[in-house]
């Protein structure tokens, strides 16, 4: 499914003329980041930009947006951009670095906020692509849909949009596309692959119970601190002894909370566990094993009460479908050349991107965009210093969306 290069070049012909305006708007988004499901100013600004460009836009939930350009007969191509930021104080050294502080509606505490994952580039790339398609309707046919999704960082945004009527707010797409700026790719280079590209993930809060006592009389109690410690050790055997060596799996205990004083044996302990895998079967086995081992250790320690398990921040596997990914790869190579595209190694981070595609029951493809020209500057996503180079990242993100979508819309 080759692109019409002349049509693509026409759609992208305004790139130079719009560059300074796009860079200025990018800086505004970068300096005004907002937390997950609290992207009110961000959504309002996106909505104004779309309305001013004459593009139909619908609010889905409090901060989700769907922009739709209908342009005659043809396929329906949808593109996702996440719009939320992180509770991270920026340390990039950029002259336009974020100094924003926000009150978290959940904790009611003031925190520093920055786009330390690059979502400002994602939303700007989609905004630019929508405007480009809208200004050059003679060069393509079909429907292009932009999905501006909140709350990717806590895995709530895609599900929130679905729960608030996303399926009724947009036509069913023939393909669902997404991209993410990364430090693992050379600056301006696009990376894609068929199959697992982002891991499935889940966080689990486990509460185990003991019996309180004076620290000098441990025989009168059941010590949940010792119990939690043995659980941490036993959990390390899941990946080492229960998952095949050919598979990728991670079990991390990121926090243990118990007790208030050195001479008091508490009555409970809390463990926060995170899992990652490139297979839903492996993930299910890890969760089953965690519960089995925790229960066994509780029984061995004479715990007076059954442990409690709470699953949260659950991300699905991002598993690129073969046909659309091959189409996107061919379009990228045709337009950017072989040097502009490379294989993307699976990334151990996680996304809720596939939730919408799965809700519609349509194939999807997700690619990476290199954000740093100098590898020495390429810190990882979520690092306080993560702020990709303004160019060529801003231009290439827009170009990539137009080129990929054009494989369906300009054939």
Write the layout of secondary structure elements.
Elements lengths: L4 H7 L3 H17 L8 H13 L3 E5 L3 E8 L4 E7 L18 E3 L6 E3 L6 H17 L6 E8 L7 H7 L2 H4 L5 E12 L3 E3 L2 E4 L1 E10 L3 E2 L9 H19 L6 E10 L5 E2 L2 E10 L2 H21 L7 E8 L2 E3 L1 H15 L4 E3 L10 H7 L3 E9 L17 H20 L2
Parallel strand pairs: 3-6, 3-7, 7-18, 8-17
Antiparallel strand pairs: 1-2, 2-6, 4-5, 8-18, 9-16, 10-14, 10-15, 11-13, 12-14
Helix pairs in contact: 2-4, 4-11, 5-10, 7-8, 9-11
Largest β-sheet summary:
8 strands, mixed
Strand content: 25-35%
Number of strands: 18
Radius of gyration, Cα only, in angstroms? Answer: 24 Å
List keywords for this structure.
single chain; 411 residues; alpha+beta; Aminopeptidase; Alpha-Beta Plaits; 8-stranded mixed beta sheet; 4-stranded antiparallel beta sheet; 11 helices; 18 strands; 27% strand; elongated
Overview of the molecule:
This is Amidohydrolase. Keywords: Hydrolase, Manganese, Metal-binding. Pfam families: M20_dimer, Peptidase_M20. There is one protein chain. This protein is α+β, with helices and mostly antiparallel strands. The chain has 2 domains: 289 residues, Aminopeptidase (3-Layer(aba) Sandwich), CATH 3.40.630.10; 111 residues, Alpha-Beta Plaits. Helix content is 36%, strand content 27%. The protein contains 11 helices and 18 strands. The strands form 5 sheets. Strands 1-2-6-3-7-18-8-17 form an 8-stranded mixed sheet, with helices on both faces. Strands 12-14-10-15 form a 4-stranded antiparallel sheet, covered by helices on one side. The longest helix is centred in the C-terminal third of the chain and has 21 residues. It is elongated. The protein starts with a helix and ends with a helix.
């Amino acid at each position: 499914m080759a692109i019409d290069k002349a049509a693509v070049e026409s759609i992208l012909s305004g790139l130079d003329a719009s560059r300074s305006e796009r860079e200025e708007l990018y800086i505004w988004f970068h300096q005004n980041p907002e937390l997950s499901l609290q992207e009110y100013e961000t959504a309002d600004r996106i909505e104004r930009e779309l309305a001013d460009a004459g593009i139909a836009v619908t609010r889905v939930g409090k901060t989700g947006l769907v922009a739709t350009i209908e342009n005659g007969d043809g396929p329906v191509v949808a593109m996702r951009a996440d719009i939320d930021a992180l509770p991270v104080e920026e340390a990039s050294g950029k002259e336009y670095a974020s100094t924003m502080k926000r009150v978290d509606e959940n904790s009611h505490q003031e925190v520093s906020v920055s786009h330390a994952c690059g979502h400002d580039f994602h939303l700007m790339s989609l905004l630019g692509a929508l405007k480009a398609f809208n200004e050059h309707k003679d060069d393509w046919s079909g429907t292009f849909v932009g999905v501006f999704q909140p709350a990717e960082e806590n895995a709530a945004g895609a599900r929130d949009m679905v729960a608030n009527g996303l399926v009724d707010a947009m036509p069913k797409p023939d393909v669902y596309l997404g991209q993410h700026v990364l430090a693992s790719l050379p600056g301006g280079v696009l990376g894609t692959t068929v199959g697992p590209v982002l891991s499935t993930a889940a966080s689990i809060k486990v509460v185990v119970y003991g019996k309180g006592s004076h620290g000098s009389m441990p025989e009168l109690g059941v010590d949940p601190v010792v119990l939690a410690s043995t659980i941490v050790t036993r959990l390390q055997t899941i990946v080492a002894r229960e998952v095949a060596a050919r598979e990728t799996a991670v079990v991390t205990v990121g926090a243990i909370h118990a007790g208030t004083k050195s001479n008091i044996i508490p009555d409970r302990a809390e463990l926060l566990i995170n899992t990652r895998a490139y297979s839903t079967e492996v993930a299910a086995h890890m969760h089953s094993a965690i519960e089995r081992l925790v229960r066994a250790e509780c029984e061995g320690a004479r715990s007076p009460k059954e442990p409690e398990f709470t699953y949260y921040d659950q991300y699905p596997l991002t598993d690129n479908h073969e046909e659309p990914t091959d189409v996107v790869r061919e379009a990228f190579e045709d337009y950017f050349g072989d040097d502009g595209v490379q294989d993307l190694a699976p990334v151990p981070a996680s996304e809720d991107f596939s939730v919408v595609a799965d809700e519609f029951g349509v194939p999807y493809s997700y690619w990476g965009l290199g954000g740093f020209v100098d590898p020495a500057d390429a810190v990882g996503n979520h690092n306080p210093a993560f702020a990709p180079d303004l160019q060529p990242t801003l231009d290439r993100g827009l170009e990539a969306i137009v080129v990929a979508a054009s494989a369906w819309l300009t054939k």
